[in-house]
Amino acid sequence: MEAYKNYIETLAKSKSHDMINNSSAAHASVLAGAMFKFGEKSINIFTGKLHPETYATDDVVKEACCFIKNKDGKVRIIIQDKDSVFSNSQIAEHLFFGKLKKEGCSFANVMIRRIKEEKINEITFHFMTMDKSAFRFEPNNSEPVAFASFNKPDIAEKLNNKFDELWSSEYSTEVTI
Fold first, then answer.
1. Domain membership flag for residue 3
2. Nearest-angstrom CA–CA distance, 60 and 64
3. How many whole angstroms from its chain centre is CA 145?
4. Beta bridge partners of 42
5. pTM value surpassing 0.70
6. Residue 4 lies in a domain
7. One pLDDT digit (tens) per residue for the chain, 177 residues
8. Which burial class, exposed, middle or buried, applies to 153 when counting CB atoms under 10 A from its CB (0-12, 13-18, 19+)?
9. How many distinct structural domains can be found in the chain?
């Protein structure tokens, strides 16, 4: 996995246009960590459950905390939550947020929304974007198979626009940490 991490960081540093195939939670975690590490202003995550094996690894938490604290980065998360396991109180107990809190991260720049139950099954994909250029896209939200790039602004823009649409529409409601 160290070789994969080095490869991903090389692509991120160079802002490579290369497409990256990604087929496991461990690979997704490496990409998430790199996006937090090399992100400058914003991270958007549209996810099912914010899977701990992807987002609550020590590397991702460390990079997310640095992004939030040192770069004053903004993180927006929309949770699709098919099993309705997230309520306001459960969000605070989620492993990712618990680890961030333990690292001394403030949640002032972290905003969360949840897709309304009646809209959950209408959206069949998940994604993460970094600023206006990088993305990881899962075309089928029931599998961790995805593709990504650190320099495809046209695709990142479309995903950010979709995120903004979901964020500001009647599709989602605010969740507090």
1. no
2. 6
3. 15
4. 74
5. yes
6. no
7. 899 999 999 999 999 999 999 889 999 999 999 999 999 999 999 999 899 999 999 999 999 999 999 888 999 999 987 665 566 666 667 889 999 999 999 889 999 998 888 888 889 999 999 999 999 999 998 888 999 999 999 999 999 999 999 999 888 888 877
8. middle
9. 1
